[in-house]
Amino acid sequence: MIKELYSSNKILWNRWFENAQRNPDKDAIIHWVAGEEPFRWTFESLLTQAESFAVKLRENGIKRGDVCALIIRHNKYFYPIYLAIDCVGAIPAVLAYPNPRLHPDKFRQGIEGMSQRSGLDWILTEKELEPTIRPLAVKENSSIKGLFFPLEWEKDLVPSGKILEELIETHRDIKSTDPFLLQHSSGTTGLQKPVLLSHNAILQHTEFYGESIGLNENDKIVSWLPLYHDMGLIAAFHLPLAFGIPSVQIDTFEWVLVPSLLLEAVSKEKGTVSWLPNFAYNMMADKIIDEDLEGINLESWRLLINCSEPVRDESHKKFITRFKQYGLNPNSLSCCYAMAETTYGVTQTTPMQEPVVLSVDRLELSKGNVRLLNNGENSRLCVSSGKTIKGCEVRIVDDQRLDLPDGSVGEIAIKSVSMFDGYRNYPEKTAEVLVDGWYYSGDYGFCYEGEYFIIGRKKDIIIVAGNNIYPEDIEDAVSKVEGVIPGRVIAFGEDDPEMGSEQISVVAETNIVDEDGQKKLKMEVIKAGMAMDVSLRKIYFVPSRWLIKSSAGKPSRKANKERLLSGEEIKWSKI
């Protein structure tokens, strides 16, 4: 590490440098690949390698303020390349690598859209992607200046001469309020909103969110989350890196194929903290077999935080039942509400305390009111996402953005010290959601005795006969029907001119291919809707893996509705 690159400014590079000075030989990032010995970056070796990549970035003309998109698979050199972008004062933007779950056309549309609106300057990727990306770089109105393949570069360069002088000057000039990273919001098609975050936003968030989860020097993060998503990039990557503790990084797609990898890494590395979307609790409980758990010990796991989807009490119970015999502490399950626009966390439940669960009247909830019930057919279990973390304020507002009292359902508005600086090159979209320092999230929820409960997205709500129907409730009910692939269901509203209202449609994946079998399954799905006093107007069955997922890994209601209503042929093959 070159000491001259350190300055007195409160920027991320300086924080990483301080961590490396204090603990040069401490693990920073443990790169995990199934069946291989993990590769360990220490804080010192990580920054030294980043400086080497920074030399090549400067030699290739990448300068302060340039946006560098990273499209690289799970690779041990990804991390120093990412840090090197900051070393030269440029702005990293991690994008999803094309994979079997991401259609090639969607990938190209995304890159093309981002190049025209987000203002991508350079793309750092792998050589084999050149035929796909190069044509996009030369298209009319593209801001992309060129492609580079950093995995092919020399790995032991040291900044010197003019380049060293330029880097030192850059580090002296960067301010904490300057932009640090560009993160694209979750989505499946077209243009995704680019969220711009400053050094200060991430550093303050590290302090306040770290405090809310009791983060300490003995912690070790373990994650399979993709780094193009805020939960993976901020919570599982930036948070430990800035705090000065190790993180174990598992390949997302390896985890999808072998979910027990997370438990193996926690057990072997004595991991203490992880974040997961709700679907992962079900997936691991259902798919991990006893043979994969031989020798697994989960006693070190003090905090397992459910985030990015409405939390399901049933998912928690299933997970605890499956893994408590392997040392899982039931009180380790926790919840968080977060988003890229506030850097990450907004609320968090108290560590090592069971999250509050309310049984509420489903019909009253559809009318915007919270009335408690003692369970029953007409109830919905709502799991708390906790209380606001330090530096955050939350309001529940109506359609006119006026405050609602506790116990009323409305849109969630947030003010945070780690707020984003707006959507880059999207002033109109920024103006829609960011008003007088308040970010209007588009999420629906309520506050009860100081705890916040997230129940769905405003844009996804289906209005039937004046009642608000939350698609998550329908999807949960249909997922339990035998013959439907659990978690592979979406519900949405279709306009019905005759009724003068929306009617509810459901798309469900199934392995049942014969006509009689699907007729019987349709009746069971209708009954599942009737059990919750909901009439399902149309039911569409599709094959396994038909549903399009967002970049966050969740089936997208909007994209799948558009795909279905476009008249695309549904092709079946006998299982």
Provide key terms for this protein.
3 domains, alpha/beta, 5-stranded mixed beta sheet, Rossmann fold, 575 residues, GMP Synthetase, Chain A, domain 3, 5-stranded antiparallel beta sheet, 17 helices
Tally the beta strands: 27
Helix percent band: 25-40%
CATH architecture of the largest domain: 3-Layer(aba) Sandwich
The CATH H-level superfamily of the largest domain is ANL, N-terminal domain
Radius of gyration: 24 Å
Low-confidence stretches: none
Count the domains. Answer: 3
- On the 0 to 100 scale, the average pLDDT is 90
Shape: globular
- The CATH class of the largest domain is identified as Alpha Beta
| Alpha-beta content class | alpha/beta
The CATH topology of the largest domain, please? Answer: Rossmann fold
